[in-house]
Design brief:
The protein is an alpha/beta fold. It contains 25 helices and 18 strands. A 7-stranded mixed sheet has the order 10-8-9-1-3-2-18, with helices on one face. Strands 4-5-6-7-11-12 form a 6-stranded antiparallel sheet, with helices on one face. Strands 15-14-13-16-17 form a 5-stranded parallel sheet, sandwiched between helices. Helix 2 packs across helix 3 (100-111), helix 5 (236-254) packs across helix 19 (543-549) and helix 11 (377-389) packs antiparallel against helix 17 (481-508). It is globular, with a radius of gyration of 24 Å.
């Protein structure tokens, strides 16, 4: 795992190119603390910081093909690189290393961009073609690994993280009002935009080519979805056999490494499944890690202990309290590089640090299972609302919703009238392609009320919900309710929020590589061919997985009630232990100075939370969104980060000047 940075058409001296690349890489050296290297020529600069996991001795980047006409820097892992190497050897390619990086550059030489369909992995790739004078960038199918780009004075600049751009001359980012409107409604942006104007993210499943004449983006993979009556798997028996074969191989591939591979063990179904398969393949000495909470409403330690004892792993656990969250929140925002609506990424960062402190570089986790196999409450909620919409006056149908959110008192203790008022929003619009998310997004959009007059004026004619509904009207037409909801979760929430803020960013902030067997593209494609009843059977989520794992997991884990992963907010941000920096960011002075939020509204919210006056989920989201955006502004716009000193800079283990 690594971090990459580079630029195209930077008209300056070679020394300045080298110094600029070195500084850009230093900002992301947490992604690759083991070694670094650069390649520069008149036209291009490529840089890499490396977390060495495969081919520790000879895999230093940048790497080239045999005649040095192609040069590559690469962030990620290609899990099937051994098989692909054999294919290339049969075509008379020769190799200087045993790394997956060199396999990629030879694949590109042999097949061009079509090689991407051969990869099983998680990756962000940059290849320079000297003969064509063309830069090629590519990203994995679901966006596990990030790659951002911008244009600064006619120079195309790219990097694994936006903070790298802070070291490029004359990069002066600006917060986008439109992007904030989308974050404060959809939790992320609709397109390839980021929270900063003129900074973009290469979409998952796509590649870009850049030369002196043009810049083009093409899609090589999209989430496959199946219409009713075309499902390939309709029974537990046939689906179980297919899953067993694919998932076993997905786990086996992700155990490939020249360093020790560990696993997260959260006490939930997903991590228990991955651990079960790992133990089947490698029975001995598995290291597992978990995090619990001092506040019992968030804690799953009892289930983690059950899983630990059942699998007999070498287990390490840590406990997170509200002060841990507030103490680490600024760093979390720095690494997330986007507004956050909840504090859940923070404990994941703390957990990754624990893994790092145990000298582990790779962990396998269960991300993706909820999205692919119907695990989220939003899927159940949609099913109930479809049922309720058939008899909107029913007194009893809305009561089913109380079962979904036992951790939200305003819902679990609500009467029929309150449930109808809350969940009845656009109840009858069941044909909407975004029916499943209308209520969530409408509620979240209330966060935009906290924006200042200037920011509200900038977005007064823009409605992200209407925009996404228009975009998906044709694309999701005639699909079942669950497929529509899954498409939205996988393409927006998982890829652009969850994998970013809780996945790549928190792990790589601590030089840890996460691997996700459920996000093997074969598992994704398999899951989208399943009859929806095999995912959500009645209100029994992840039905197929539970059937497959019967007798292979403790019953207490297999049949436990779904518990959403959450972390404290109010107790973290409103206590005597709150770090002074966070208080400063919420001060009237800073709110006014930055100009993003309405000072009076923020003060009202602060007082409400300090007095603990019926604080709602929206209140918690609002304070997290406001605080994280203020921190973003301070770090990236005010540039309050320390300037790099000579002794901070990465040591270049490899410098190629062409």
């Amino acid at each position: 795992m690594c971090g990459i940075s580079g630029f195209f058409n930077f008209n300056t001296s070679t020394d300045n190119k080298i110094n600029t690349l070195r500084q850009m890489l230093t900002r992301i050296k947490h992604r690759g603390p083991d070694e670094s290297g650069i390649y520069v020529s008149n036209t291009i600069g490529l840089g890499s910081v490396r977390l060495s996991i495969v081919d520790l001795a000879t895999g230093t980047m940048p790497l080239s093909n045999s005649d040095d006409s192609l040069w590559i820097v690469f962030n990620g892992e290609i899990f099937n690189h051994i098989e692909l190497r054999e294919e290339l050897l049969a075509k008379n390619h020769s190799f200087k290393t045993h790394s997956d990086t060199e396999v990629i550059v030879h694949l590109y030489e042999e097949y061009g961009p079509e090689f991407l369909s051969k990869l099983n992995g998680q990756f962000a790739i940059a290849i320079w073609d000297k003969n064509k004078q063309e830069l090629f960038l590519a990203r994995d199918r679901v966006g596990i690994r990030p790659i951002f780009y911008t244009t600064i004075n006619d120079t195309f600049v790219f990097a694994s993280e936006i903070k790298s751009f802070l070291e490029f001359p004359e990069f002066n980012p600006k917060i986008s009002a439109k992007a904030l409107s989308e974050y404060f409604t959809l939790w992320t942006t609709l397109s390839s935009n980021t929270v900063f104007d003129n900074v973009f993210e290469l979409p998952p499943g796509s590649y870009m080519t850049i030369n002196a004449q043009s810049k083009t983006i093409k899609t090589y993979w999209e989430l496959p979805i199946t219409k009713p009556n075309a499902y390939q798997f309709n029974t537990v028996e046939e689906a179980s056999e297919a899953f067993e074969s694919i998932f076993t191989d997905a786990v086996k591939l992700r155990l490939r490494a020249d360093v020790q591979v560990a696993a997260y063990l959260s006490g939930g179904l997903d991590s228990s499944i991955t651990t079960s398969y790992i133990k089947k393949i490698l029975p001995d000495n598995l290291r597992t890690f978990s995090i619990g909470f001092t506040e019992k409403d968030f804690d799953e330690s009892s289930f983690q202990n059950i899983a630990r004892d059942y699998f007999n792993t070498q287990h390490s656990s840590i406990t997170c309290g509200p002060k841990d969250i507030s103490d680490n929140f600024k760093d979390v925002v720095w690494h997330s590089e986007a507004p956050l609506l909840r504090t859940a990424p923070t404990p994941m960062g703390i957990l990754a640090k624990s893994v790092h402190d145990h000298n582990i570089k790779v962990v396998i986790t269960g991300e993706g299972a909820d999205e692919l196999f119907g695990g989220y409450n939003i899927f159940k909620e949609t099913k109930i609302k479809h049922f309720w919409a058939k008899d909107p006056q029913s007194k009893y149908r809305p009561l089913l919703l109380k079962k979904l959110y036992p951790y939200i008192p305003q819902i679990s203790k609500a009467n029929n009238t309150v449930l109808k008022m809350f969940f009845g929003y656009k109840l009858n619009e069941t044909e909407s392609p975004i029916y499943s998310h209308l209520l969530r997004w409408n509620n979240t959009s209330r966060l935009t009320n906290f924006l200042s007059k200037d920011y509200k004026d900038a977005i007064h004619n823009y409605n992200p919900i209407a925009e996404i509904e228009k975009q998906l009207e044709t694309k999701l037409k005639d699909y079942d309710y669950l497929t529509k909801a899954q498409w939205i979760e996988l393409n927006f929430f998982m890829s652009k929020y969850l994998l970013s803020s809780q996945g790549d960013r928190m792990a790589m902030a601590n030089s840890i590589e996460g691997r996700y067997p459920f996000l093997d593209h074969r598992i994704i494609e398999f899951s989208m061919k399943l009859n929806p009843d095999l995912k959500l059977n009645g209100l029994n989520e992840k039905y197929l997985l539970k059937k497959i794992m019967k007798g292979r997991l403790p019953e207490s884990i297999l049949n436990r009630s779904k518990q959403a992963y959450r972390a404290p907010i109010q107790s973290a941000f409103f206590s005597e232990d709150m770090p002074p920096y966070l208080n400063t960011m919420l001060s009237e002075e800073k709110i006014t100075e930055f100009g993003i939020f309405n000072t009076a509204y923020v003060n009202q919210l602060k007082k409400k939370m300090e007095l603990n006056k019926q604080v709602s989920e929206i209140d918690n989201m609002a304070i997290t969104a406001i605080l994280s955006t203020q921190i973003l502004y301070d770090l990236f716009i005010n540039k309050t980060i320390p300037e790099l000193q000579e002794n901070d800079l990465v040591v270049l283990n490899k410098t190629i000047i062409d």
